Amino acid sequence: MLIIDFEDDLNTEEITEAICRIRTDIKDEFKLVNYVIIQSE
Asked: Which domain of life, per UniProt (predicted)?
């Protein structure tokens, strides 16, 4: 589980895109990971 503090000037679409990128990067790097939970602070 990741708790991430996004920059205040990002809109919802930008945050969603960032979450997708982070999730994909983690799954690509760590093949045993099935779920990535991201919660914004």
From this structure: Bacteria
40 Rama class: left (phi>0) / alpha (psi -120 to 50) / beta: beta
14-38 per-residue burial string, b: 16 or more CB within 10 A, e: under 16? eeeebbeeebeeeeeeeeeeeeeee
Q: What is the pTM of this model?
A: 0.77
Q: Whose structure tokens read 């990067």?
A: 25
pLDDT one-digit tens code per residue, 4-22: 899 999 999 999 999 999 9
